[in-house]
Specification:
The complex is a heterodimer of chains A (433) and B (174). Chain A has helices at residues 3-15, 22-39, 48-57, 87-91, 95-100, 120-128, 259-267, 295-305, 417-424, 428-431, and strands spanning 133-140, 152-158, 163-172, 193-198, 204-211, 221-228, 233-240, 311-316, 322-328, 333-342, 357-358, 364-371, 380-387, 392-399. Chain A is an alpha+beta fold and 433 residues long. Chain A has 2 domains: 47-277, no CATH class; 295-431, Protein Transport Mog1p, Chain A. Chain A starts with a helix and ends with a helix. Chain B has one domain (3-172): Arc Repressor Mutant, subunit A. Chain B is built from 9 helices and no strands. In chain B, helix 2 packs across helix 4. Chain B is globular, with a radius of gyration of 17 Å. At the A-B interface, helix 1, helix 2 and helix 3 of A face helix 1, helix 2, helix 3, helix 4 and helix 5 of B. Chain B: Keywords: DNA-binding, Sigma factor, Transcription, Transcription regulation. Chain B: Belongs to the sigma-70 factor family. ECF subfamily.
């Protein structure tokens, strides 16, 4: 065998012997990325709840671990001034029914819940579910540590019509980071619906019926309810029509709980007591002067820097530093999105701009064209991505469709690459406050 | 970051952490602590640029490139010559001849890699661990193809000198 082949084999055999705590490493990478992002004053969007759900979705949480002592659930006392309800009272459940759902070590049929968490949070989740057989479960804190100080619980259960997964996560979020608005449906899989309800006491309930994947991949439906209270408490429940969030075939047409039932679940007052262990969310880093301009300002300027022949059909986007609009030149809709970010000037050499053209003012420009990765057949995406010497990054992208995951509306985007470059390099972006 | 993107990123990070770590261990000549730092930094960079990075054709390959560049940048920052080879982590538990062969191969190979100049080591890892072409290796390292060829020849000669026939014996014993 040639030496090079031996070397390749030796590298593979040696490399494969290294292992580490992937979960911890991924979490550390996330933390570092977030830290860098904050320094770059690119607003961090999302909440601890989202992260907790995402961490589990990503398979970073393992069932089992240190079991917590099982304690009987304290009877909850509904707040007379609250719109929230005690689900057990609401549904007329009694303890005998709860017992049928298992005690954390076995289900109603006597099956062992191998490794199921015995945390109080999991117990409450289990008790709030309708009749069914618990197949497995887990609980963790927001960082994915099993059981200890659990703020996340998940169960795989079968109500007799097919195994499904349901999870609940508790968190606190500062204003501006709360999920108290419907998501940008233009970025979601077509058919996704959202209902936002303002409740007495200024709480907000958002219920989203969508899918796990937002692109064309097949995957289970993901129905979600998020309750946000004025003081920033968030209770989020997700359910899927499959025994896993990813990687397993669906077992039923829809998740088992209706939107109303899912809403009732997050409205239960039985979650309240867990918040005493959840610290207040850290304040958002101060951004005056160095922060990102408002969404409205970005959208207004985006309209100005695009060709005036375009008619704006639909403005959208809620994420700081990211906006999109749908425009039409009379030959079909074009989805245009913009990333507006402030980077540390030292990072303008990022690999993204390795092959950039350097303009006369020092701005680095990269043009990209290709198939959209978020759409169906025939999707074309053109991008003009720029970063200025001071670290201001403006990337403008156009699609030949009217949104992500939508069918094509025309052969190519209705904004040319030259027009995208002109839009991205417009000097007015640097003046935007 | 948008929640769905955060999910997407975390899934990526969780699935790529192990391959990145293995590459990093080879790049560092077995310094697992430095390898973890490099992977952490790489994943952090991927997070910051995730919106764009996730849209490149092969984000996993892109992350490997970021890792190599992070490694080389790290070397420049240290500018203190070779980093000491860290304490080698425990070989996977077990007993028997195959385990001792694995340990011996590992020690031998990592010792040899650690004696290469960092850029030579990067060439070896990219070419023979990641199976990248000369051009791809050059692109990842931001050097010319001819520079990669030069380094590759030099690194292989050095490794032949260090490992000799023992490499073939150790590999064939598996």
């Amino acid at each position: 065998m040639p030496f090079e082949d031996d070397l390749g084999a030796a590298l593979r055999q040696t490399g494969d012997t290294f292992s580490t705590d992937n979960r911890a490493l991924a979490a550390a990478g996330l933390a570092q990325g977030r830290s860098v992002r904050r320094r770059r004053t690119v607003a961090v969007v999302g909440t601890v709840a989202a992260v907790a759900a995402a961490v589990v979705t990503a398979g970073l949480v393992v069932p089992g671990g240190t079991a917590r002592e099982v304690k009987p659930a304290n009877p909850s006392t509904p707040d007379p001034t609250s719109s929230r309800i005690d689900n057990d009272q609401h549904k007329g459940n009694d303890s005998s029914k709860d017992k049928d759902k298992g005690d954390g070590s076995s289900d109603g049929n006597g099956a062992t819940l191998g490794g199921a968490p015995q945390s109080e949070l999991f117990t409450v989740l289990r008790h709030l579910l309708p009749e069914g057989r618990i197949l497995s479960g887990l609980a963790s804190d927001a960082e994915g540590t099993p059981n200890a100080g659990a703020t996340f619980a998940q169960a795989v259960w079968d109500d007799g019509n097919g195994a499904s997964t349901i999870s609940v996560s508790l968190s606190r979020a500062q204003a501006g980071q709360r999920q108290d608005e419907c998501p940008d449906l233009a970025l979601m899989k077509p058919g996704t619906t959202c209902k936002r309800t303002e409740l007495p006491g200024e709480a907000v309930l958002v219920v989203i019926k969508g899918w796990e994947y937002q692109d064309n991949r097949t995957g289970p439906k993901d129905w979600r309810a998020i309750l946000t209270t004025p003081d920033g408490r968030q209770i989020q429940a997700d359910e899927w029509n499959a025994p896993a969030q990813k990687g397993k075939p669906t077992t039923r047409e829809n998740p088992p709980l209706s939107a109303a039932q899912l809403g009732d679940l997050v409205l239960s007052t039985r979650w309240d007591r867990f918040f005493s262990d959840i610290p207040e969310a850290p304040a958002q880093p101060p951004q005056p002067g160095t922060g990102l301009p408002s969404a409205a300002k970005i959208t207004t300027l985006l309209k100005d820097v695009l060709p005036q022949r375009l008619k704006v059909l639909e403005p959208g986007g809620q994420e700081a530093g990211y906006q999109h609009i749908t425009v039409d030149d009379g030959h079909g809709a074009t989805f245009v999105e913009i990333d507006f970010q402030r980077w540390d000037p030292a990072d303008v050499d990022d690999p993204i701009f390795t092959k950039a053209t350097v303009l006369s003012d020092g701005t680095k420009l990269v043009k990209r064209s290709g198939a959209g990765d978020k759409g169906g057949a025939g999707i074309v995406r053109w991008t003009a991505d720029t970063i200025r010497p001071g670290g201001l990054r403006v990337a403008v992208t156009a699609f030949n469709s009217d949104g992500y995951h939508r069918p094509v509306t025309r052969k190519t985007p209705g904004v040319s690459m030259d027009e995208l470059v002109k839009a991205a390099t417009d000097p007015r972006w640097a003046e935007l406050k | 970051m948008h929640e769905d993107r955060t999910k997407e990123y975390l899934h990526f990070a969780a699935t790529r952490a192990a391959p990145l770590f293995r590459s990093a261990c080879l790049l560092t000549g077995g310094d697992t602590h430095l390898a973890e730092d490099l992977v952490q930094e790489t994943l952090g960079k991927m997070y910051v640029t995730w919106r764009r990075a996730s849209r490149v054709g092969n984000p996993a390959g892109y992350a490997q490139t970021v890792l190599v560049r992070t490694f080389l940048t790290h070397r420049r920052r240290r500018s203190s010559g070779e980093a000491p080879v860290g304490e080698l982590p425990d070989v996977p538990t077990g007993s028997g001849e195959s385990d001792s062969d694995t340990a011996l191969l590992r020690l031998t190979l990592l010792d040899a890699l650690a004696r290469l100049a960092p850029k030579d080591r990067a060439v070896v890892v990219l070419r023979y661990w990641e199976d990248r072409s000369i051009e791809e290796t050059a692109d990842a390292m931001r050097v010319s193809s001819s520079a990669v060829r030069t380094r590759s020849v030099r690194a292989l000669a050095k490794l032949r000198e260090l490992l000799g026939d023992s490499l073939a014996e150790l590999v064939s014993s598996h």
